Amino acid sequence: MIRALLVLCCLFVSSTSFAAQRPNILFIFTDDHAPHAIGAYKGWMQDVNPTPNIDKIAAQGMLFQNSFCTNSICGPSRAVILTGKHSHINGFMTNGNRFNGDQQTFPKLLKKSGYQTAMIGKWHLSSDPQGFDYWKVLPGQGNYYNPHFKSPKGREQIPGYCTDLVTDMALEWLKENAGSDKPFMLMCQHKAPHRTWMPALRHLNLYDDIKIPEPKTLFDKWEDNASPARNQEMEIDGHLNLVYDVFGPPINGWDPDAGKSVDKSGFRNLKKMTPAQLKTWNAAFDPKNEELKKAGLTGKDLVRWKYQRYIKNYLRCIKGVDENIGRMLEYLKETGLDKNTIVIYSSDQGFYLGDHGWYDKRWMYEESFKCLSSSNGPA
Prior knowledge:
alpha/beta, two-stranded antiparallel ribbon, 12% strand
């Protein structure tokens, strides 16, 4: 996917035979969206398909069946996409590094060739974006609810749900800029479905009436794997935090703060919700949490409960992304921009959806290295 995108951009930059009709580029990007959580890939979860709009992109264009990232961690993967260089060359090797924006990137090349460029949403590279006529990004990971955004004008908090807000801003930018004598390249990048998974209020009860299929390896013992596979911190059983990751209740003497990788970002975000938002959130989860308290689940039964809560919230976040992609596609169609716009959808890496009993992504197996990618555009 990375090579395909950069080659595509180089073709636009170098060709002069169709300069007047250079295609617009809409690059839609998510965080941790696994290929087997998208209908077009027909994975083991295809019967629970939250992605009809992403599927349209694939059906109308190209679907990359074997697309792999070079570094399955958020920041490094993004730096590779921007530069086309491996992590040890571009200097951003792990989250916590600071991206050197002075180096060459494909937005700079497009801008130099006459494109107007914009970056809206999740950046996650520490330094400020370069090579863009306009940018407005989430500081760090950003929040799902009522997030702050950073731009050259400073920081501001905007009420609402992050996926919706990023799309609102992208559409606003298109309305103001897509129609000039310059083609555009817009990067619309979402936080979802990154941990800790917080769906939009309208999706909190989505999938309540079904059981999500379990992967065949949910209770993998890693007996045929290298020994490090038995020494990680990605197990739904022992590491997925019942309280902070899946917003469940502490039961059976559960210590919410146990483990090195406790992520409290979701609980901090709950404290930033409006009273109305929090009331809707609690109304959705409190009854289910009370049922868990009464059930007294342990062992594999508790793992299965955690898996269902995790995977449903994950898929609910993706549903929010897909709905907003639908908004973007509809706007392109209404304005006629679809006739000369290449739409690319991708994620920074894959993710474990209970595969091998894991969640997260930072492991050298196909589920985390394989990233989805599809695109369509003018004929």
